[in-house]
Amino acid sequence: MSKISKINPQLPVHLGLILDGNRRWAKEHGLRPFEGHRRGYMRLKKVALAAFERDIKYVSAFVFSTENWQRGDEEVTYLMDLLKWIATYELNKLHKKNIRVIYIGLERGLSQDVLKAIRAGEAKTANNNGGTLVLCLNYGGQQELSDAAASLIREGVAADDVTPELLARHLYSPELPPIDFIIRTSGEQRLSGFMLWSAAYAELKFVLKHWPAFTVADLDAALLDYAGRKRRFGA
Asked: What pLDDT digit, counting tens, does each position of 81-131 carry?
């Protein structure tokens, strides 16, 4: 952490994480895919807390996309049960560390038990200020933009009055700042619809390791990389 501060104190305010490779990691270790997902969450908690310790204010993680419903019923059921467990028991651990937790994505398709758990968790941690963990659940970036446009239409906004600023105010969580830096694991080099509007000028880092193998040391190495970049924002 001290090395990062000496090189460049301008670390990302908002860090995005695309958690790729849970199933591949499990396969390489002779484990069922479910174990990869469980280890993946434990890794997320550790990395997110480390990011907050380094004074990063927001960490957004892609935990379940709108396309993930296409996976097998057994795996989807396990993921939903895991998410409910995170939103209840694990939420208390994050709350004790003063972390605010919010969820963005579609409610439709989620069970009432899951919805009840995540809304209760959001309410419980709403006043915490030690960092904000954003869990993108049943989320798709194109769907978010489509929903924002639909919201403008319902409000009767004229086409000539639509501006980027106005559209941004109709995103799922418009209070979130733009993403500064996105890390994607497992060697994949694409956004897969992750927070497309917020990621417009994000710096990107692609890591070969599968997500459950990504360490705090890997996070620090990525942050050092980010600190050495010059962001131009199209200039």
From this structure: 888 888 888 899 999 999 999 999 999 889 999 999 999 999 999 999 999
The pair of three-digit structure tokens given for residue 55, joined into one six-digit string = 């004074």
Pairing label, strands 14-18, 58-65 = parallel
CA angle 97, 102, 106 (to 5 degrees): 155
- Gap between the Cα atoms of 102 and 93, Å rounded: 15
Query: At 103, phi and psi to the nearest 5?
Result: -120, 140
HSE of 136 in the Cβ direction (CA atoms, 13 Å)? Answer: 28
CB-count burial class (<10 Å; 0-12, 13-18, 19+) for 145? middle
10 Å Cβ neighbour count for 208? 10
Other CB atoms within 10 A of residue 73 CB: 8
Rg (CA), the chain: 18
Active site residues: 20, 68
CATH topology of domain 12-227: Undecaprenyl pyrophosphate synthetase (3.40.1180)
Taking the alpha carbons at both ends of the chain, their separation in whole angstroms is 30
Q: How far apart are CA 73 and CA 78, in angstroms?
A: 9
